């Protein structure tokens, strides 16, 4: 009793003090009003609970037995008349770095949003009649393994950033393991100062080097980063011919809703795991793989905006991969080769993105000092692959990347000179246009015969050799279209000045004739380039290669397609057909093909859509020679290697993927290097 009084007395004193305080200040006290209101609400609540308890029956849907005052009461949510069906497996919780691989797969393949489900019984119905099998763990794991194999058969050949043998072993170990991944990424580059005596003795780097790096030892049995696993699986779903995905596409007009869901969940997972902020080797690879995975339409909210490419470059800079002193100190030569190769992929993509989408490049020529053989120069002899009969895709691509880097440097200069506000208002200086035309011709003289498509396809060419040569070929030719478009939009600066001053002297007349001659030369080279792109696109489309392309050829087809369409050229049909086949994996290309078709129809009907280059463009493109365009290149089609879609050999590890691509790359130790 004494304890009860001690608890009540301070409360009474507090209320009395509040009343006296109000009276002292001549304020009307509201404490009694508040207390009376609270007591009224409390009495009404207790009365309502007692009434419901006495009127309830065993079969009714009442609140239930009365709880004690200290027990939590259920929230007064309205009772739903019909609950949505729930899968037998529980909905996975938020995925994090500690989530196991099994739970990650359960999240990736969980049913669509129940609010969009109108079938009532099968939560997977939106993904086709076979998708319900994703509810089973064993079936779900086998499906994920199949998508991973498709990734290595199709995407990895163009973007060889992973070690297939190591990835398979680690993924299988993750499925068998009951422990979650470590809190820190398995593959991690630890940056350390090279001016430390201990660091210098361990790494052997130069004292003048600002940073050096090493890789923490890791085991093949350690789990893989969750964001990287999700990215690989989403890539596999984009190209897989699994019966489940075929049923999904058949139900949804040729597009896979499951594939779209995987891309969205992969992107959200990467954002949640801070892939774009935490500098690790796995995060670099993940960011580079996510960028071409998503929609390539910059006008879409979730489309291509260069965010993940920019993030990958910043992660590489944070790791110091742009410095030779850092890359040579990485102790694991497999990861050293991966990081060097990732740097060059990001470096080239940044340059091409800037010139295609009219942006300033993020990198400059003096931002790095590494070369393509940085890893090979520091590699012990026992790690160097001396078996010339087994050449990895990365080694095959080194010649291509050397030529691509030279072209990328031209692209950077074009972006910095063409996409400036001053250029937009005043025009492109004539010396700038002529200088870029000479630079492109010099690149052609030095590299084109080595990396471009030869007059006849060699009989020993495989799929990767064919598509790589075509990619380097069209990447060179698209630069002419970009330069032509800039001059057509902004004009030549000297010619714009002549128009503004209205000076018709003899000197100005001669200058005008010189400018027109250069513009005519630019038009001829651009027409040849556009027809060349259309011809190669037609050959690749006829063999089914465009449906297997991982966001490499589409930009060239779009630029060449619009240029030929505005001229009313019949070669544009090759670009339209290529983009329509491209839409098998990238749905947005259907709309781009339709846009090109509309421009072509308008040009055929007499519309003329050129501005500053109108003086050198013929009014009727149909009467101009094809300039070695599509018809010139079609006779090579019979010599192309078979597409993986048409090949009959099936890998024993792939049941429903796209067969025909060899799996021997990087299967032997020491072959995964630059």
From TrEMBL:
A Pfam family this chain is assigned to: Fungal_trans
Superkingdom of origin: Eukaryota
Record-linked CDD domains: fungal_TF_MHR
Domain Xylanolytic transcriptional activator regulatory: 148-416
Biased composition (Low complexity): 52-65
Membrane-spanning intervals of the chain: none
Keyword Nucleus recorded: yes
Listed InterPro entries: Carb_Metab_Trans_Reg, XnlR_reg_dom
Protein name: Xylanolytic transcriptional activator regulatory domain-containing protein
